[in-house]
């Protein structure tokens, strides 16, 4: 069940990604519609984060291509916002909540230019949207996990993008934050923005997302939640290891085989 | 004092050179070092410092004399090369960064020593003093060096100011920087180049072995005093500058004393002072805070005990002896004694002979602690489903922690319960 759409926000064609010659995503082919909240779902080690990182150009791709708004990434960077996993940064870094959110404006500023008054206003407004304006001057190490995630979200909002790629926005947050985040994502979808979020809680998945991408080393399904979130497809994603596939990838890594013959 | 004034008058041009040179290079290294520190690459400075030696020797061999420009360019090339090789090893092999640094550091330093020994035995008279690069000799700075130093130092500061936003961004969240489309590789190249430059000039004063200290220590010390990158960089520069100045002064006051090592000693003293005395993060503050908490717990326990005794006899203002209090609750005698006296000074207790009486405020405070204790017990049994006979011990600690905001939340959540799990009444005011 892989549903392709007309005028996709994000189109992935025959994408393979390898870490040190070991393929971790095989031949992904998908497209997603505009104005939806989209979940990437799959077990641990399925390559969910890898997919997002590949889209953002953070890791090299072995084959295939990715188009965003029918363009290459570099042409549309301004319209795309990436929210890394919360643990990916050092929260002991000597900076304040406001400064972190301001980083969301750096892309618009470019090299050497300092944040202007307008940027600070956008940052404060984003903080307000996630309910953290009272903590603007706080040192970031004083924040709880939920607050850290809200800050990352505020930083993404400050980018004023049209497509948001979020890596585990619900990981390790309290119930109140989870509710606040999902409400925000819904609002964004209403404003015709697209949100793609990595998620691994099956309990909430069907409630949170309009569209679901099931992933486990390969694409199992991509389509509207009601078509994709079925016992059979979930079983295919989570059950039964692809033993032969993993043997091949291990062999490829060991012998350092290239993924494509000539490149 | 007279000595200091004489020193400060800078009447001796040599002093001028040494002081200016030392301050410039320590301050500028400290500024660059902040980002090395924030990127958690403290060891990189050490690797560069050691890898510079072969470059210095090659520069000398090419120039045939100790021309500072040749030496600096030579040092820069090998220092830079070492970082490129470390990065390449980490990227292309399974060797981890710490191993790669250790490897490159020793290989380059070994080559440096080899070249140095060759030069020393070559009979070239100009070579004398080249070994100063090992331990540095700030006191030997002359006018020509100073010009080169100043140019490099000003360049360093200029680039750090220019790239401040970018350096902060890649130190905090490199992935975001890439996602935003910043030329991260090139920005890192600039930072690497600045680090190498800082080491190259710093090494003339403190030498290969001590260089890492003036690069990283000011940043580490500054981090204790602030939670903002900007202030941290400024503080590190000040700490660096002060140590440079102090090092120069000490070696002036006692001519047998070397400048470079003294710079390192001074900056280390600053770092240790920060480590112990800095507000919030220093060890002293933490110990003191722990003590404060302990005292607060003893005081609240005393008031609670006297209040509970009063609750039994329905007379809260009946005088109690220390023995009676001890019979009701186990205190360390000395702790109890000190605590009683503190409470008297705070107005919560009155003393009559060897007996103690609660003041009205003391009774309220004791009652409040009891209330928090019982509220928490209700919460534990109701929300965490802990058996009533297991909740007391937890509540003993938590009663001292609950803030007024949490108290209000707790009351609302539990809907002002009348009784605790042991059927004791919860006293509300």
User: How many domains of chain B?
Assistant: 2
Task: Please state roughly what percent of the residues of chain A sit in beta strands, choosing from under 5%, 5-15%, 15-25%, 25-35%, 35-45% or over 45%.
Answer: 15-25%
How much helicity do the residues of chain A have?
25-40%
Strand content of chain B: under 5%
User: In CATH terms, what is the architecture of chain A?
Assistant: 3-Layer(aba) Sandwich
Q: Taking strands numbered 1, 2, ... along the chain, how are they ordered across the largest sheet of chain B?
A: 1-3-2
Number of strands of chain B: 3
Low-confidence stretches of chain A: none
Notes on the structure:
The complex is a heterodimer of chains A (263) and B (429). With 263 residues, chain A is α/β, with parallel strands linked by helices. Chain A contains eleven helices and nine strands. Chain A has a single domain (10-255), classed as P-loop containing nucleotide triphosphate hydrolases (Rossmann fold, 3-Layer(aba) Sandwich), CATH 3.40.50.300. In chain A, the strands form two sheets. Chain A has a six-stranded mixed beta sheet, sandwiched between helices. Chain A has a three-stranded antiparallel beta sheet with strand order 2-1-4. In chain A, 43% of the residues are buried. The model of chain A has no long low-confidence stretch (mean pLDDT 88). Chain B has 429 residues and is mostly helical. Chain B has two domains: 17-277, Orthogonal Bundle (ABC transporter involved in vitamin B12 uptake, BtuC); 282-429, Orthogonal Bundle (Arc Repressor Mutant, subunit A). Helix content of chain B is 75%, strand content 2%. The radius of gyration of chain B is 32 Å and the shape is elongated. The interface between A and B is medium-sized, with 30 and 26 residues.
